[in-house]
Specification:
By secondary structure, the chain is of the alpha+beta class. Helices cover 30% and strands 26% of the residues. Bound molecules: zinc ion (ZN).
């Protein structure tokens, strides 16, 4: 039986429907309705579909649905990429024609590889419902999504944070420890995100991945954003701005939905989300991948699920239709990364800000409803013309890119963090005397960052050139590698997301107000002729070195 909206609505208990409407708030003028296609005979429905979108599909209901889907489809692989802190299995599914199982099989097809994900914030669930429905279409011959699988490989990870989802009726943002997983992309400390990056992202190396959230601004049904840090290849962000986002806009508009940038604006300017590498979409840029954020502004669960469904589908359609273009942009960004390291050139940005893009934009905002001076003014949609879009990343301070970073042989925690991303690290197999660039430490401060009570920030004094003796076992991280942009960001002392900030180098750094060392007689010992150095040295020119690769 076709499951059209009126059919479902009439089945829903009146109270539940009332509750759903209450959750959604009063509908704005022109808000679209959700139009789903019929569920094929014998195919499973999500729990949310079955209950008329009055409640979400819970974790175990999702697994039941995915197993049922696998049971009626030959075009799908279903697996788990790890377990959460509370022991829940993290699901993923692969869809392609021919059906592949391992990443290398997908690479040999030469097609774009996409990873579509949702629910990294446990209480943000709307787009996950759309993604689960899209998985059924991907598994079902005859649908628009299934037809695209000759041209793309799609990996779906519909629930990154089930512990947060199940923590309470409404779910919570963090995982069971309260840690925000969408700020853990550099540390990779929490199992849900470490497994996702280790076993999905760095294993499949997607050309594009999407991360679905709840947030952003009405009257839009979907807000989006791409990498917005200065250092990822600008071509990736341009591809989003000029081609992928317009394709999403068109897809959503075809059913009366609206989409625009995350996060919100007023009558002068539209502001976007942060630029830090620890956020999924920005992290994607540092991997030379198109990392895309989706946010669901406040709307009914069913309308939001449909908007998310259309957004994810638009991305697959774009990748299928523009396969060479998408693969080309990512390949070129990677080639450029390796070239910038091989004959070191350019700068690593250590401080940045947003400025207005060079072009004006027009968008809609919601006014009234308690905003402004008149609390009784009803909500209305206001069209803003020729406003500023505050998302152009501009470097404020930079440091020269080295050929390699050199770390003490006992900096094993920093190296472990690099290796979790797949960064190439080598070790000296013979001692070497090297002329390196070093930073003097002018100050050290600490701040609370999630479960790090004293994340460490170093203030650099002078940049000096020294010749140091490096023993066997010293770590060397070349910047001429696929992940060269990420390695430089994690090893430059002053960036917001480096191995120093996440406390892996504390043992080498002077503590605040440290007493000068005293000799055996109680007099001050001979002071070092120079102030302490940041223990990450920079080898500025290509240098032959006897090294071996660090393997896990
Ligand atoms: Zn979120």
């Amino acid at each position: 039986m076709p499951k059209s909206l009126p059919g479902r609505a009439s089945q829903a208990p009146i109270l539940a429907l009332f509750f759903a409407l209450l959750l959604a708030g009063a509908p704005l003028p022109g808000q679209a309705q959700a139009r789903w296609s019929a569920v094929p005979e014998g195919h499973p429905r999500t729990a949310a579909e079955a209950n008329g979108f009055t409640a979400h599909t819970r974790h175990l209901e999702m697994w039941e649905y995915l197993h049922a889907l696998r049971g009626v489809s030959t075009g799908m692989r279903l697996g788990t990429y790890g377990r959460t802190r509370e022991g829940r299995d993290l699901p993923y599914a692969v869809f392609s024609r021919p059906l592949v199982t391992e990443p290398w099989e997908a690479w040999t097809l030469g097609r774009p590889i996409l990873v579509l994900a949702a629910n990294v914030h446990g209480g943000e669930r709307t787009f996950r419902e759309g993604l689960l429905i899209l998985m059924r279409d991907l598994a079902t011959p005859g649908t628009a999504a299934h037809a695209l699988l000759d041209r793309v490989t799609v990996v779906v990870a519909p629930q990154i944070n089930p512990d947060g989802f199940e923590a309470s009726l409404g779910g919570q943002r963090g995982n069971s420890w309260g840690i925000d997983l969408n700020r853990d992309y550099i540390k990779l400390e929490q199992p849900s995100i470490a497994n996702y990056v280790g076993s999905v992202i760095s294993k499949w190396r997607p050309h594009l991945f999407v991360d679905g959230h709840n947030g952003g601004s009405r009257p839009y049904n979907l807000n989006y954003q791409c990498p917005s840090h200065v250092d990822p290849a600008p071509a990736i962000t341009l591809l989003c701005d000029r081609e992928i986002f317009p394709a999403i806009d068109a897809k959503l508009a075809s059913e009366g939905y609206k989409s625009w940038y995350y996060t919100g604006g007023d009558e002068e300017e539209w502001r976007v989300g942060g630029w830090q590498a620890r956020i999924g979409r920005n992290y994607g840029g540092f991997l030379n991948s198109v990392g895309i954020l989706f946010e669901a502004p406040r709307q009914s669960l069913e309308v939001g699920a449909r908007a998310g469904y259309l957004g994810y589908l638009a991305v697959i359609e774009f990748a299928a239709t523009n396969a060479d273009r998408l693969v080309g942009v990512v390949t070129e960004a990677t080639r450029e990364t390796i070239a910038m390291g091989a004959a070191p050139s350019g700068q690593v940005t250590v401080e940045m800000r947003y400025e207005a893009e060079d072009y004006p934009v027009s968008y809609e905002i919601v006014s009234g409803g308690g905003r402004g001076s008149d609390p009784d003014q009803p909500e209305e949609i206001l069209r803003v013309e020729n406003a500023r879009l505050m998302k152009k990343p501009v470097a404020v301070r930079t440091r020269a890119r080295p050929w390699a970073y050199v770390l003490p042989r006992d900096a094993v925690d920093a190296v472990a963090m690099l290796r979790r991303h797949g960064v190439v690290v080598e070790r000296l197999s013979q001692p070497a005397s090297l002329e390196v660039r070093a930073y003097t430490v002018a100050g050290v401060t600490h701040e609370r960052a999630y479960n790090h009570a004293a994340a460490t920030k170093v203030e650099v004094g002078e940049v000096i050139t020294v010749t140091e003796q490096f023993p066997v076992g010293t770590f060397v991280v070349p910047t001429a590698q696929n992940l060269g942009r990420l390695a430089a960001h994690m090893l430059e002392a002053e960036t917001e997301d480096n191995v120093i900030y996440w406390n892996t180098m504390d043992a080498w750094l002077p503590r605040a107000a440290e007493e000068p060392p005293r000799g055996p007689s109680g007099n001050q010992a001979n002071r070092s002729p120079r102030p302490p150095l940041v223990p990450i040295y920079k080898l500025m020119t290509p240098t032959p070195l006897a090294t071996t690769l660090v393997r896990d």
